[in-house]
Amino acid sequence: MIEQKQETVHHRICPFCEACCGLEITVTEGRVKRIRGHAADVFSGGYLCPKGVALKDLHEDPDRLRQPLIKREGRFVEASWDEAFAEIERRLPPIIAKHGPDAVALTFGNPVVHKAGLMLYTPRLGRALGSKNVFSASTLDQMPKHLSSGLMFGDFLSIPVPDIERANFLLMLGANPMVSNGSLWTVPNFRDKAKALRARGGRLIVVDPRRTETAKTADQHIFIRPGGDVFLLLGMVHTLFAEKLVRLNRLAPHVVGVEALQQAVAAFAPERTSARCGIPAETIRTLARSLAAAERATVYGRIGTCTQEYGTLCSWLIDVLNILTGHFDEPGGAMFPKAAAFQANTMGKPGVGKGIVTGRRKSRVSGAPEVLGEFPASCLAEEIETPGDGQIKALISVSSNPALSSPNGARLGAALDKLDFMVSVDVYLNETTRHADVILPGTSPLEDSHYDVAFSQLSYRNHARYSAPVMPCAAGQPEEWQILLRLIGIVQGKGAAADINQIDDELLAEDLRRTAGARADELFKAVSHRRGMERLLDLGLRTGPYGDQFGASPEGLNLDKVAAAETGVDLGPLGPRVPEVLRTPSGKIELAPQMLIDDLMRPAADLARTAPGLVIVGRRQTHCGNSWMSNLPILAKGAAQCTALVNPADALRLGLEDGSRARIAHGNNMIEVNVEITDEMMPGVISLPHGWGHDQPGSRLEVAALNPGANLNALMDENRRDPLSGNAVLSGVEVQMQAVSKPVFAGQTR
Ligand SMILES: Nc1nc2c(c(=O)[nH]1)N[C@H]1C(S)=C(S)[C@@H](COP(=O)(O)OP(=O)(O)OC[C@H]3O[C@@H](n4cnc5c(=O)[nH]c(N)nc54)[C@H](O)[C@@H]3O)O[C@H]1N2
Ligand SMILES: Nc1nc2c(c(=O)[nH]1)N[C@H]1C(S)=C(S)[C@@H](COP(=O)(O)OP(=O)(O)OC[C@H]3O[C@@H](n4cnc5c(=O)[nH]c(N)nc54)[C@H](O)[C@@H]3O)O[C@H]1N2
Ligand code: SF4
Ligand SMILES: [Mo]
Known about the structure:
There is one protein chain. A seven-stranded mixed beta sheet has the order 5-4-17-16-15-6-7, covered by helices on one side. Helix 3 (81-99) packs parallel to helix 18, helix 9 runs parallel beside helix 14 (311-324) and helix 19 crosses helix 20. The longest helix has 19 residues, at 81-99. The protein contains 26 helices and 29 strands. The protein is globular, with a radius of gyration of 25 Å. The relative contact order is 0.16. By secondary structure, it is an alpha/beta fold. The structure holds ligand MGD (2 copies), iron/sulfur cluster and molybdenum atom. Molybdenum atom (MO) binds next to loops. One ligand MGD binds next to helix 6, helix 13 and strand 23.
């Protein structure tokens, strides 16, 4: 008799990118048998990309850490969880006692936003430690957008997204959602949504120094000089005023600063800005006119517009264009999501607030202002290296790989070795965690429950979806929020053996005293049947804008209801939210925040700068996920290669052949890569993906090491930042390139 194998089907939101696809995972005898898109998911409708399927490979990866590691005499040895926490207790509190909490830095990486336990408990760890030295991937990514949004709308996370399903015009700068699947815009299956937009007569226009996968499907592609977006956008805003195309419509009573803005852009006529962006003045004007004339339109910009020296100005001007053309907070335009939980702009008094503050502290060495409670990630190395009061002596890294993801990783790596102590919460022994003294393995995403704390606040449509764990945690493996609670116990001086449930209760009670006032005790009791991440989630959902308000709105949401809805809960298309969404002190949209008006001095002074000869930009690849998915066999065999894309004219001039090796250098830093010649590239621009460079000794990434590639960030300059947001400049950096057969660049050895 053939025995029927027990099959179970589970639903899990994919944690690998911002699209947050609902997956259907079939498990047989404790092993993943199949992963596909969950067709009935109300939000993603069955879409998935090759990375989603790789969840199986991650779960089964023999290199994925399953046991804590402690470094003893330079070598990692496996340890029990209690031993690992005891080691942390032995070494971390004395550093805090001697040098103060600022001597311990925190660095939070991208997966923090993709794991609800990390997302909800890393802020708690930050508060418990009380160090001003907090760093994250945000300053390698989207901090400019947080800042411009905060200044304009009063909250760092009030970020409008394109209402793509109703738009008939989408102007996209520095984003490639056909590959990245969207960012600061949770939009699974961009491909079909863009197709539908065009099928109903809409237009998609892409502005990018590379004719990307997205640009190839668009109606129009416009090459732009890297870093030139601010000049294009200023020229467009200028045109709107000059040609009297400004239409505030319904928003007129809610917007202040129109005149100040008009004056501030007076110097930026397209004829003057054209050279710096490499786009003819007439094209700039036509773009402005088309945008103004479009019925339902959005301008959207992403990482290409953020990782440059004018990142905050670009992020601001994109929303300025949407507002000035009447496409803001309107169906088909740029709209604010309204998440079911955790969204600050749904809390407190609607329509007015404290606004945001930055620069409450300055970083010790470079004097970079704090933004959103963080210092620039690119300042971490200098803060470790530079002696004196406030020097960083210890580091806790949580799902963060700055050795590859931040500029000048070599310098950072050397700095990490100088620390007195380093703890990593991570799933791999990799380029960063190899520097740690203790590594605490995070859970496989199949082992924990999930809710999109951040991305439901950035979604093209409102929804609430919860994923239960697909598998039980491996024996002894704590959930990630529990790991963070144990670290909190240690930094609070309660010790490694402290009762984490009690710590969790204390932290929640403290939160509620701050936020719920007289109802604090009642709310605490109402969710006391839950623990940890799920308790916070239940509380967030029940008190949220669609919540059951603990009985006052009995039809409303709570965790039981969301969890019972296997397909997720659809909360409808985005709706207008101005003025209720605003949290500025004026209660208005601040179109011309002084900090940004002042910053226009920089592009004004820069108008006459001549373009550098050759610059480098980054790109994402379908079979890669930042710096860390290259160890997953199904992705590694997807043929992603770390190649430099070079325009044929540049290749000819530099004597490069297709498939040949070349050196790329910036200052004293140099890497070697394979060359791919393609007219996709704008002349004078080369493109190299980031996240490669898996050839560093001491990592345990057997598959990734077979095809290591080169680290783009080895070329980047850690001292180049957008001064307002602290975001690193990772795009448009001047480089030299030459064929490998030639001698090494003068003065360079490596
Ligand atoms: N030149 C250049 N540099 C860039 C970019 C670029 O476009 N160009 N992009 C930037 C951007 S947008 C970002 S977001 C950053 C990302 O910067 P980082 O967040 O530093 O880098 P990641 O590659 O996402 O690395 C994630 C880390 O988390 C670990 N990890 C993965 N899953 C889990 C988990 O479930 N639990 C735990 N505890 N750990 C886990 C991985 O092993 C890895 O160490 O890189 C930035 N760097
Ligand atoms: N497959 C895959 N998907 C991912 C990731 C991944 O590593 N792999 N990473 C995820 C993360 S962390 C993020 S933040 C998102 C990012 O998502 P996207 O913002 O869509 O990122 P990219 O695909 O890198 O596209 C950026 C584009 O900007 C262009 N560009 C560079 N410099 C400039 C410039 O100065 N101006 C203009 N206009 N364009 C410029 C580049 O050529 C590139 O096409 O992707 C996420 N999704
Ligand atoms: S698009 Fe993003 S969320 Fe969807 S399956 Fe791929 S990696 Fe996962
Ligand atoms: Mo990112």
